[in-house]
Amino acid sequence: MVVRRHGRGGAAVLAAGLLLCGTPLTGCAGSGAAAEDGRAGAGALRTLGQAAAALVRAGSSRARTSMEMATGGTRVTIRGEGVYDYRDRLGRLTVTLPRDAAGAEEHRPITELLAPGALFMKNRGAGVPADKWVRVDTATLTDGNLVTGGATDPYAAAELLRGVREVRYVGETEVGGTPVRHYRGVTDLARAADGASADVQGALRAAAKGFATTRVPFDAYVDAQGRLRAVSQRFSFVGGRHRAAVAVSSTTLLYDFGVRADVRLPEPGDIYAGRIEEE
Asked: Are 154 and 185 in contact (CB under 8 A)?
């Protein structure tokens, strides 16, 4: 996937034993024609507010995710790749931790299953048997799983755009060879939660309470069908020994719409019920 862009820095988080990170997208020069063709103002708000619905109409897609963390002078990136079924709100990602993200040894990729209200992880480590899954209730996480798993749920990323408070049309560009419209602005977690579907509402409300601020700067890239092709969102939370505000940049790329996305959740007997050790 290629996005034509200028570079921009990101920041960081350590949550639920995973070191999280990714490279944000930034935009190209804007065009004065935005106000004339309805891509700015109310038109832009409408486009972004309907991004989640457009993904549901598309049915499914492949996804690539990344998060970027910079802490103690070190910048690391966690990457994910998989598929997502927007109609059933189910996704499967293989998340790869960098070698130095959780110690000196290299770690096996973590398989994550995304479902309404839940995150399932396999190869979680920390005393969990290799053949078992760990289940986490996303509404109980202070970030609503927007960053905890090392990847933002693609559908939740789109639902977040329902809370846009500020937006401007930047211009035309391309994502992976597909022409897109680039929007830049700020969305609000609490406002997004109020308008979100029931499947993600609880997680977004948890994030609105848990983050340092409900304001989330973003860059969104939308194709001619209104489908979100890429989105970069920058979250801020309170963490670390000194309880300082920390920033996390999360990027999601969506492509191959309509691909088969057969995601099956674990059986109850396959879910680990014991205590999870901290890594």
From this structure: no
Burial of 260 (0-12, 13-18, 19+ CB in 10 A): exposed
CA dist 11 and 20 (Å) reads 10
Q: How many domains does the chain have?
A: 1
- Residue pLDDT, tens place only, 41-83: 788 999 999 999 999 999 999 999 999 976 656 677 899 999 9
CA atoms within 13 A on the CB side of 35: 1
Nearest one of 212, 155, 162 to 185, comparing CA atoms: 162
CATH, residue 117 = 2.50.20.20
Side chain identity, residue 244: A
Neighbour-count burial of 273, counting CB atoms closer than 10 A to its CB (0-12 exposed, 13-18 middle, 19+ buried): exposed
Rounded to whole angstroms, the Cα distance separating 18 from 14 reads 6
In a domain, 3, yes or no: no
For residue 3, give the amino acid letter.
V
Is the pLDDT score of 35 beyond 50? no
Rg of the chain on CA atoms, in Å: 18
Q: Per the domain annotation, does 43 fall within a domain?
A: yes
Compute the distance between CA of residue 269 and CA of residue 133 in angstroms, rounded to an integer: 9
User: Would the pTM of this model clear 0.90, i.e. be above it?
Assistant: no
Residue 185 has pLDDT above 80, yes or no: yes
How many Å apart are CA 61 and CA 218, to the nearest integer? 21
What is d(CA 256, CA 17) in angstroms, rounded to the nearest whole number?
32
Residues β-bridged to residue 18: 15
- Say if residues 214 and 190 touch (Cβ distance below 8 Å): yes
Q: In this structure, are residues 91 and 263 in contact, taking their beta carbons and an 8 Å threshold?
A: yes
In this structure, are residues 177 and 156 in contact, taking their beta carbons and an 8 Å threshold? Answer: no
Mean pLDDT of 135-160: 91
What stretches of 166-272 show up as alpha helix (H) in DSSP?
189-195, 198-210
Please indicate, yes or no, if residue 180 is contained in any of the structural domains.
Answer: yes
